[in-house]
Amino acid sequence: MAAVGGEEVKLLGAWPSPFVMRPRIALNLKGVGYEFLEEVFGVKSELLLKSNPVYKKIPVLIHAGKPICESMIIVQYIDEVWAAKGSAILPADPYDRALHRFWAVYIDDKWFPSLSGISRAQTEEAKAEAVEQVFAGLKLLEEAFEKCSKGKGFFGGDTIGYLDIALGCYLGWLKVTEKMTGIKFLDEEKTPLLVGWGERFCADDAVKGVMPETNKLMEFFKVLQAKFKAASAK
Amino acid sequence: MGEEGVKLYGNILSPFVLRVEWALQLKGIKYEYVNEDLSNKSPQLLQYNPVHKMVPVLVHNGRPIAESAVIVEYIDEAWSDFYPLLPSNPYQKATTRFWAKFVEEKCLHGSFDVLSRVGEEQLQAVKEMQESLKTLEGHLEENKFFGGETIGFVDIIAGWMPSWLGMIEEIIGIKIINEEDLPLISAWIKDFLDHNLVKETMPPQEKVMAHMRAIRENVLSAMSA
């Protein structure tokens, strides 16, 4: 698949990973074709080990033979290299860019760990605390949405932007957690703006084909849990 | 974009605040420094950073930005015509951001582990720290600084290491950085500490060391409680 100047674009990844979804959405927004190289679960390919020797993790973007690692760093790279194509991912104004970056860090460092903490919780107490943190975070993100969207449909305005990608990639896992706990995290009464945003995000052309079905993700999660239980029982 | 109304909320004990000061001073930006008493945070700080309630916070023309690395990138973009902190080439920029994130995730958290553990666990943390620094050294190559001939983004993000790791070594009584094992990092530390900007902004070592000793004691007493 050729892109700017005819250089090849490859993406190393796996369908369940929210981090892998991020560069896929970015490439779709830019209308850039790429070869998706799916890693086999539990086995790291030679190409992955060679391209990301530091972390040995997906996603890795390989553009004209050069690897770029870390999902949000890849998203910024895509935005900069293909600045002339598709829609802008980061806003133009430095302050708006700082807001998008700030909230993306918050989502990865604080919010998602509390979400994944729910299924990892050993006690009911720990679980309840994690649930509370997820709700508190969503409340903050609802306010952030109001500020960033300026009345439009996405954090990025009219089109999906950096912060939409940062948060939206977790929607599949959020739905899995809702099903498993019976708790409705995205609630019209608590965070109406985010509910509307979530629907728009998942329905967008750039996202539709790469957002996994909740049931499929659920099955994958059960397989993962079983593997961890077996591994820790040994 | 003008320099009007640039305020930095900070505290001398924070290496994260220093990052922002270096960025501002390298760019020649005039700013007002507002010292925060972290045991008694001002209403302004709580208003400007309600999510984390921490320093540093940069307020530019009344608009606040938090998170040191985010602030430094903001400074680079808002004052883009002098002293670029990040390279303009997208691939080099991505590489720069990658190593800055590596410093944050491996070296920063690693140094906390070294400071807050004892016995075998501490030795293990020291070993992991040394491995992380060895990996980081690869990115330095033969350059004086991570930014090349001059201080750049990664230098700013990693700039706490020369003095803070030295202080940690003194507190725990274990050498983390050996010149034979980490020659390039050792050279970088010397060059970085020798830089005028770093010398001028160095916080009072005794105060920082006392603060770090207190952190270590708090963690250890919480563990044995």
Subunit arrangement of the protein: heterodimer
C-alpha end-to-end distance of chain A: 45 Å
Count of β-strands of chain B: 4
| Secondary-structure-derived class of chain B | alpha+beta
Mean pLDDT of chain A: 94
| Distinct helical segment count of chain A | 10
Largest sheet of chain A: 4 strands, mixed
Q: Summarize the biggest pleated sheet of chain B.
A: 4 strands, mixed
Question: How would you sum up the global shape of chain A?
Answer: globular
Radius of gyration of chain B: 18 Å
Task: Provide a count of the helices of chain B.
Answer: 10
Question: What is the average per-residue confidence, as pLDDT of chain B, rounded to a whole number?
Answer: 95
Characterise this structure.
The complex is a heterodimer of chains A (234) and B (225). Chain A is an alpha+beta fold and 234 residues long. Chain A has helices at residues 18-30, 46-51, 71-81, 94-120, 124-149, 162-168, 171-181, 192-203, 205-208, 214-233; strands spanning 9-13, 35-38, 60-63, 66-69. In chain A, helix 1 runs parallel beside helix 3, helix 4 (94-120) runs parallel beside helix 6 (162-168) and helix 7 packs across helix 10. The longest helix of chain A has 27 residues, at 94-120. With 225 residues, chain B is α+β, with helices and mostly antiparallel strands. Chain B has a four-stranded mixed sheet, with helices on one face. In chain B, helix 1 links the parallel strand 1 (6-10) and strand 2 (32-35). In chain B, helix 1 runs parallel beside helix 3, helix 4 runs antiparallel to helix 5 (119-140) and helix 7 (161-172) packs across helix 10 (205-224). The A-B interface holds A 54, 63, 66, 68-70, 73-74, 76-77, 80-81, 94-95, 97-99, 101-102, 105-106, 140 and B 1, 51, 60, 63, 65-67, 69-71, 73-74, 77-78, 90-91, 93-95, 97-98, 101-102, 135. Chain B: Residues 4-83 form the GST N-terminal domain. Chain B: It catalyses: RX + glutathione = an S-substituted glutathione + a halide anion + H(+). Chain B: Residues 89-215 form the GST C-terminal domain. Chain B: Its EC number is 2.5.1.18.
